Each structure stands twice: as structure tokens, then as C-alpha cells.
Amino acid sequence: MSAAVFLRALRPTQIASSGLLGNRKIIGHAVGRAPLLSAVSGLRTPSFTPPVVQQSVKQELVKDCKQEQDLFTDNVISKVNNQIVKGSHGRLFAVVYIHGHQHLVTQEDLLIVQGVFPPSIGDVIRLEKVLCVGGQDFTLFGRPLLRKDLVNVEATVVEKTLSHCRIYFYNRRRKNSRKTKFNRETHTLLRINRVEIMQKIDEVPEVEGVDGRIF
Amino acid sequence: MVITSPTLFARARGGDRFWKRRRILSLSAHYFGRKKNCYSIAIKYVNRALRYSTIARRQKKLDLRALWKARITGGSEELGTSYNSMKYTLNDIGIGLDHKILQNMAIWEPRTFRGLALLTKAKETEKGLNSLDGPSVSGVVTRGML
After folding, report:
1. Domain match, B43 and B83 both
2. What is the tally of helices (H) and strands (E) in chain A?
3. A139 and chain B in contact, CB less than 8 A
4. Which residue stretches, if any, does this entry annotate as coiled coil (chain B) (predicted)?
5. What is the pLDDT of residue A11?
6. CA distance B111 to chain A (A)
7. Which of A16, A154, B120, B121 has the most CB atoms within 10 Å of its CB?
8. Low-confidence ranges of chain B (pLDDT < 50)
9. pLDDT recorded at residue A30
10. How far is A87 from chain B (nearest CA, A)?
11. Which tens digits make up the pLDDT trace of A43-72?
12. Which domain holds residue B55?
């Protein structure tokens, strides 16, 4: 945007006070308007100029941390892998995505799935959408999901019931207007049987991204 | 004698009063005073209670979400980040944990939550934020993968 166009976009008082005109006088303000003090203040030039300071260029010494970081990474990964292989991580929790909701589960937990859920009582299900797995000393986060081969979360369908009766009551007082509805949702109870890590964390499959999963 | 045709203009009315009142009084059984036993008084309070519970069912979700947000803010502020930073960064990285899980972790899985906070700070430093706080977060190696 050129300077002329920019100046035209400002109001006269703005142009004057902004000092964009430098030493030129203001001619041609709107008729009937008295010139404000601010209209002339922008015409003054400063009596001093700030001194030009020569800034010394500071050079930082940037360390090449790649080797250090690689060592650190390998150390951490090997510690995690040791725990996985020996099974010394203890009780694991997993964040599982099921039927539109996320749940933080461990072994022996009960889970309620609300709505239409096809598996029948006694079925053993594998919960495949795992966002996160962790124990006392480490946590693994998926972006957004972890590989199916890595984590195994199994659950059994324990019960299929209806929820408590939810009463939907709408009343407009003194208007003889009243409506009552009743609703009970189907509840499926799942018992989490196990949460396990099956593989070492740096074991990568030959072909990635083709787990046959649907996001 | 067998009556084969129905009686004209007869209506089947009434007889419902007892059970209608029983429906209401069963809901007011735990109230105090005449509200629990007298129908014309109880009906007002029972209607109010049912109306409130209907409205509250929707409100509960909003209230819980606000509570979770407060808990995540509290946990992240303790660790030197903020709620907004965590939300933006986790979304950026691709970690899809929701409010319910994050507030759960902030209380019951503190080490995991601390890991997420450090991750947030490291990612922000990579982006160029947090430069006034000093050098990058120690103990976090991203290898450019974030």
C-alpha cells in the first residue's frame, strides 16, 4: 500500500499527530473546523536525535547435543523394554476409546457402555482403540492411537440391563401444560480382564499404517 | 337376558384418583411435613423436583466439564504450563486425550500428567515460545519428531 493511499485512509488530526508529513504544513482541513493543538504538534521535529549505538554481535556457542540425546534416548528405551520383557512394570492402566467415550481402565475394572452394543453376555472382547498405556515408571502415548500389536486389552461382557428410569417432565405452571416422558437406556457391563504390553516399544513392523483399523 | 348392544353415551370415568395420588406421593415420601402426605401440596413440590431434574441432566454435563477444566488448569499451573498451552500442544502433537481423562490423570496419575506438561513445554520451546524462561526443558528429547 503506497504512502499516499495510507495517508488518505487516516483522519486529518491523525495524519498531523502521527508525524508522517514531516515538515510540511497542513493545508485544507474541513471548513468550519478549528485547528486543534494536536494538529500542530506533529509538525515539530525533535531537538535531539538518538545516538546510533554500534551493537556488538554476541556469538553463542551452540553445543551439538545429538550424541548425548541419542544416548539418553537409548537408555530410556532399554529401561522400558527391560520392564516389558521381565513383566516388572506391575499393574498397567490403559485409556480405551469405546462407543464414543474414553475410559481409563486397569484390570478388574467395570465399564458401562450405554446404548446399542451387539456383543452378548459371556463374550470376550478385545478393545483395540487404545490411546495410552502406562504403569508406575513409564507411559506410552499414541498419536492418536497405539499400534494394535503393542497393547492387548481384553474384556468380558458381564451383564446386559436397563438403566434407571429417567423422567422427563415439562410443566408450564398455571397454563395447563404438562408433558411426561420416560426413558431407560440399555447398559452393557464389561469387566476388564487384562491390560498387557505385547512387544518392545522400538519393534517396528515392516509395513506401517495398514492395521485394518477404521478410525 | 343378554345385552348385545353397548349403552348409549356412557363413559368409563374415575376410579383413578387413588393410583394417580399414589404415583405422586411415592415420589414425595422423603419430604418434610405435609408436603409428603397431602396430595394437593405434594403435587407442587414433586412437579418442581421433576422439572429441576430434567433441566439438571443437561446442566450436569456442562458443570462437570467446567470442573474438569478447573482441575486440569490447577494441575498444569502447578507444573509451569497452562490449560490453554496443554490443550493446543496436545492437539498439535496428535494426543487425543479428552478432558475427563486429563483431569483423572492430574489427580490419580501424577507422573503421567507431569510427563504431558513437560512435553507441552518442550514443544512450545521448539515453536519459539517460552524463550524468556531460559534454556529448554531438561530430560525431554524430541528428536524433531513432534
Report:
1. no
2. 4, 10
3. yes
4. none
5. 60
6. 8
7. B120
8. none
9. 46
10. 19
11. 766 677 777 777 777 888 888 888 999 999
12. 18-59
